[in-house]
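Two quick folds needed for the group meeting slides. Do the first one here.
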Amino acid sequence: MIRPQDRLTQPGGLADRLRNLRTAAGMAGKDLAEMLGWAPSKVSRLENGRQMPSTEDIAVWAQATRAGDEDAEDLRLLLNDAQTVHRDWRRRMSRGQVAVQKDYNDLVANSTRIRYFETTWIPGFLQIPDYARRAFAEMVDLHDLAVGDVEAAVTTRLERQQALYDTTKQFELMITEPVLGWMPIPPAVMRAQLDRLQTAIDLPNVRFGIVPLRRPLSRIPQNSFQLYDNYGVVETFVGETECGPEDVEKYHRVMDQLWEEAVTGSEARRLIVAASDALPR
């Protein structure tokens, strides 16, 4: 896994670009620091990749060094890349799946607006134990994990569902219609899982929606993602990506667009009931 610090200090990376802009402007580090109201050590830390700059740091640096629009845009893109972190599942869960679930519980506890878009699984907030158990068992098999904490991981994930009743938080949980038809558990159990979805429709601080099939769409769903305020995560078969600020902003925009396509309330309930009726008896 490439660390954010490595992206900062690689040749031509963000640290190099910041230093080059300052020297091209004929400014000493202490002069730039004085102009920006910083301690001189901050300029040194940024130019040597020992501190991750903020979006505001990049903006004022570009302005102070009289960088052109193209250079300023390059800095912004380099920062987004440096703040993007990739973690592979096998390494992430080498000591068990419970720790990963606790991390997500902490994310929820420290966020006020949680937005999930799922194209594959029912969101963990709405999973029944058997469905969650199947999801964790698949991870053990797929990544050859030498751990035996599936039951503890299920318990930890289900603890997160209590947050749905915290009215200081707002949840937006959206799935695509095919998720209703995937059957990772036996039909009778899947019916119970689909019934669980209907309870989300009535929660006052939960917006539950389904992007339906066989309707014209202006935004085609491409992948699942999760947003916790201004923090974003994208999960794949092989790992998870912690998104940089540029990507988080884009995912928020995509989520807004998908809500224009989604059905909610009674229409969502109708799709859930139809999916349940279509399951084998």
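Then this one, please, same format:
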Amino acid sequence: MKIAFIAHDRKKDEMVNFVTAYEDVFQGHEMYSTGTTGQRIMEATSLRIHRFMSGPLGGDQQIGALVAQDELDLIIFLRDPLMAQPHEPDISALLRLCDVYGIPVATNIATAEILVKAIDRGDFAWRDLVHKYKPGIEE
């Protein structure tokens, strides 16, 4: 699976703790992240992560491009709902693309845990259906 990690500043510690707790589940998957989040995860774990730019500098859009190319299976995006984000339009665009392409997004730790446990059980076979019925393709 191809998994992306994004965390707002006040959620980075929570993301690092989460990924550390489930490091064994993430082993063997292809992982992506925005800049600082990915760096912090790699410093705390043995995971290798392809890092993009920081979210406000275009990292959210780079991950969005992977979504639009059907190159991601899951995004864990720990958002800070109590802090205004200067790049909110980029965040909204990324979430809209996930809805268009049927990419599951966890925006809090509870949903992230449910999705990671699904990965561990191999419950992502439904993604084959999403690939079969891509948006914009008519039969």
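Slide caption for protein two: The mean pLDDT is 89.
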